[in-house]
Amino acid sequence: MKNKVIDSPAPLSGKIVLVTGAAKRLGRAIALAAADHGATVAITFRESEPEARQVVEQIAQRGADALALRCDVTDELSVREMVKEVVSELGAIDVLVNNAANYSTVEFAKLTVQQWDAIFASNTRGPFLVSREALPHLKKRRGRIVNMGSLGGLRPWPTHAHYCSSKAALHMLTRVMAKALAPEISVNTVAPGMIDLGEKAAAAFMRRTAKDTPMARNGTAADISAAVMFFATAPSFITGQLLAVDGGLGL
Ligand SMILES: NC(=O)c1ccc[n+]([C@@H]2O[C@H](COP(=O)([O-])OP(=O)(O)OC[C@H]3O[C@@H](n4cnc5c(N)ncnc54)[C@H](OP(=O)(O)O)[C@@H]3O)[C@@H](O)[C@H]2O)c1
């Protein structure tokens, strides 16, 4: 009997994936992974336009279509216009990855109302707004939402009260949306732990966290994009779940 090679289509072939804040770092890795999985990819950027253009070029080099649009996820009108443009250019949205966010370190006693509100606006209200605007399009395609949570939403980091609280709220929002948007849309969270993106300023901190991590290393962008691709392609019966990708650091 001869061996037969059966070509199976790429898992996201024919799908449109929208990733917010994807000009750099983890968002970029997720956008490239989606293209590698066969998707057409829309990314958003706020300030990083040149980097966003590079991501579009890199996706084109992979033979996939891509689009980059400016969007401030804290601004309802900007989100509405962005979603409208994605659908008018690409025709649909199958997977939304709410990745855009902010992070900062502030001693609790010095945390200002402005800092508190700004982080909730991007990290919690942003994913709510983008999801709400994308809803009719995701419903039509029985799509998925993947929210980027954080180990900081599971563990209390004393100098990150605003960030940890915003991500804990996002984790709950995932569970609420999973119930509210079923059975058409599945909604899940990927919660990264310590991810080493090669920043020189973070090198000493990264060495310490690797030592504390049961898997004896920090995470990589590939670890995170693999988890996002899992939820983007998993059975839709998996919903409302949180997947910590932290090498066991949160255990
Ligand atoms: N990196 C980690 O170790 C880690 C750990 C735990 C959780 N996470 C989560 O994983 C996701 C990606 O992490 P990351 O470190 O790659 O993120 P990041 O670099 O901190 O931010 C991603 C992008 O978000 C965009 N952004 C910020 N505020 C925005 C706004 N108001 N409107 C639109 N876009 C906005 C920025 O776009 P522009 O540059 O275009 O302005 C930025 O490039 C985030 O949700 C983060 O909280 C990351």
Key descriptive features of the protein:
251 residues; alpha/beta; Rossmann fold; 7 helices; binds NADP nicotinamide-adenine-dinucleotide phosphate
Write structural notes for this entry.
This protein has helices spanning 25-36, 49-61, 76-90, 113-140, 161-180, 203-212, 221-233, and strands spanning 16-19, 40-45, 66-70, 95-98, 144-148, 186-192, 242-245. With 251 residues, the protein is an alpha/beta fold. Strands 3-2-1-4-5-6-7 form a 7-stranded parallel beta sheet, with helices on both faces. It has one domain: Rossmann fold. The chain is built from 7 helices and 7 strands; from the N terminus they run E-H-E-H-E-H-E-H-E-H-E-H-H-E. The protein is globular. Helix 5 links the parallel strand 5 and strand 6 (186-192). The model has no long low-confidence stretch (mean pLDDT 97).
